[in-house]
Amino acid sequence: MLNSNSLMNITIHLNEISTHIAEQIKNQSEQVQLIYTEKQKTLEKLQKSLEKMNQLISKMCDKQLPQRINQFQILQNQQYKYELQIEEDLELPCYRNRIFQIKLRLVQNQKTIINSNNLLVELQIWTYDKIPKKLTHNNKNQSIFKGCQQTIIKKGYGSLSRIQIKEVSSHFPKGAFLMVILPIDDGAVIGDESKFLIKKEWIKPLIINDVAVKAKKFSDRHNPYYVKSDGTINIQEQE
């Protein structure tokens, strides 16, 4: 039989073991709690970063889409004092890489305005997407233009004399383009109508609808239609 001293020693030893185990459990519990806390902090940081990223993406989308919509709508709907017109009827369709020209004049109420400052105008091609977009390069990242894309309106007249379009319109919605000619620089004039110093914001761009650009010209398939001075299609000629 165990004497009282032996029992006491065993009890002390068991207490020491129990205390040691309790300390280990406590330490491990604290470590687990620390790891859990760190993970929670990390998750919270990631969540905040994700929220900020989503907010940024949302703001970018909110800004970009209206810009694309309004950019073309403003061209059409803004109030203008003057407008660009075609001096001579333009025959369509165009043909890829074939040179053509557009003669322009600056008018007010169908009267040519002899502007004193030089007005730089630019030819642009827009698509018939649901949200129209300006087209500058093809799928190979090559410019769709070759030759003249800009000209000066000087004393009421100007000419885009060597235009070449290197992309056919059949690859795009509606099988046609919107052709836009608009002023992009007015020489930084303040604007003085009495001196015929005309600001670019006063000039209505020329917008030509349904511009077909085809690959090749076959005489038996060439059915011309014509654009009038204001950019509208001459239906009678087209028929």
UniProtKB/TrEMBL annotation:
Coiled-coil region: 36-63
Keywords: Coiled coil
Name of the protein this chain belongs to: Uncharacterized protein
